[in-house]
Design a protein that fits this description.
Layout (H helix, E strand, L loop, with lengths): L2 E9 L4 H15 L3 E9 L1 H4 L4 E5 L7 H19 L5 E4 L9 E4 L14 H24 L2 E4 L2 H11 L6 E3 L14 H10 L8 E5 L9 H12 L7 E5 L5 H10 L6 E5 L4 H6 L3 E4 L8 H8 L4 E4 L16 E2 L5 H13 L1 H17 L2 H15 L1
Parallel strand pairs: 1-2, 1-4, 2-3, 4-5, 5-6, 6-7, 8-9, 8-11, 9-10, 11-12, 12-13
Helix pairs in contact: 1-13, 7-11, 10-12
Length: 379
């Protein structure tokens, strides 16, 4: 029986790197491997699997920054115990420095977030960022193999961290084709009704944290203001995500007279249901190692406008180039692309169908098998 150690902040199916880590753990345990998880939170389905042991690490006051050191120390301790038994380990970025497999979902060295607020808050963010960059540099340079979620991430790891390209492998994310199946007109209408969204208006979605400006919701908001000034614009926007800037965005929508055109839904754990109601999706992120949210929207058959620099953009075929945003700071460019999307909505649905099928065809198990194979070949 093979043994594995996974060190990850959270292992849940709710999205982002958490969903990817959850999928890897389920695959390994599902094939009968002995698995130890060092984590702040593991989903109940993992804890119920007979070959899984969960070593839960506290996250004081629910603060990620306060739990980082505890997670790292617990991971190192578990590795010292398991490595002599022939175990393999998978860690994430700078969360734990081991001579094992490091799976990079986000590279701090590739982007310094801009945080609104007081001087103290901005200073704290800057200090945290420098600490995160230093931790990931140590961890990635000590890893035997670095697995990246896109070619963009691989280039950043090589250029910004100095990792030898021979020690880097690109493995794209998978998907759950059952949870994110393609939606037909009838299902879309039912999903809109469940959200109390207007059936006679197109619905555009944005999914992302509103704690800083990395996802570029400010660009979306400004583009929406421009579009709502025109009589022809008949689409509504639903924003899924929470964060420190959420109250400010709600207030700004009220002040600008677009509160009836932008719905702030906060955090939701039913993102597949929300995506089923969408006619379009926007994701103009300033930095995105991959971009699982637009990936999942595309799986549902929803045309997604994404930053050309994002990892998921690598999956787009040449005929979808008009959905790629060149400048995530340009609300004018985004407004223009949204206008063109609206003018040819049905054509764009048909155009993204082949990409939607390709993304759904690559399951989480396929992704996990590639990572496991690479790790076993490296050990």
């Amino acid at each position: 029986m093979k043994r594995w150690l996974i060190v990850a902040g959270d292992l849940t199916p709710l999205g982002g790197m958490d969903a990817a880590n959850h999928a890897l753990a389920r695959y390994l345990a599902g094939r009968g491997d002995q698995l130890e998880l060092v984590t702040h939170r593991a989903w109940p389905d993992l804890e119920a699997m007979p070959t899984v042991t969960v070593r839960r690490v506290s996250r004081p006051f629910g603060k990620h920054v306060l739990g980082k050191g505890l997670l790292s120390r617990a991971g190192v301790s578990a590795w010292r115990r398991l490595q002599p038994l022939g175990a393999r380990a998978v860690v994430n970025g700078g969360n734990c420095s081991l001579a094992a497999v490091n799976w990079v979902h986000y590279l701090h060295a590739a982007y310094q977030p801009w945080v609104a607020g007081s001087l103290a808050r901005r200073s704290k963010s800057l200090v945290t960022h420098h600490r995160d960059v230093a931790a990931e540099r140590r961890a990635l340079r000590s890893a035997r193999l670095v697995v990246c979620n896109s070619r963009r991430t691989m280039a950043d790891v090589v250029d910004r961290i100095g990792v030898d390209p021979d020690r880097v492998r690109v493995v794209y994310y998978g998907s759950d084709p059952a949870r994110f199946a393609r939606v037909d007109d009838r299902e879309r209408a039912a999903a809109k009704a469940a959200l109390s969204a207007r059936a006679d208006r197109p619905l555009v979605g944005f999914v992302g944290a509103l704690g800083d400006r990395r996802k570029a919701f400010d660009t979306v908001f400004d583009a929406w203001l421009v579009l709502c000034r025109t009589r022809a614009w008949d689409a509504d926007l639903i924003v899924v995500g929470s964060g420190g800037e959420l109250p400010e965005w709600r207030s700004r929508a009220e002040a600008c007279g677009v509160a009836d055109r932008i719905r702030f839904a906060g955090f939701r754990d039913d993102v597949p249901a929300v995506m089923a109601a969408l006619d379009g999706f926007v994701h103009p992120a300033r930095y995105e190692a991959y971009g699982l949210a637009p990936h999942e929207a595309l799986c549902r058959g929803v045309p997604a406008i994404v930053s050309a620099s994002s990892g998921v953009a690598e999956r787009f075929s040449a005929d979808l180039d008009d959905l790629l945003l060149r400048d995530p700071d340009s609300s004018g460019e985004l407004a223009d692309r949204l206008s063109r999307w609206r003018s040819h909505l049905e054509q764009w649905r048909a155009a993204v169908a082949p990409l939607s099928e390709r993304l759904r065809a690559r399951s989480w198990d396929t992704m996990a098998a590639e990572i496991a194979s690479a790790a076993e070949a490296t050990a």
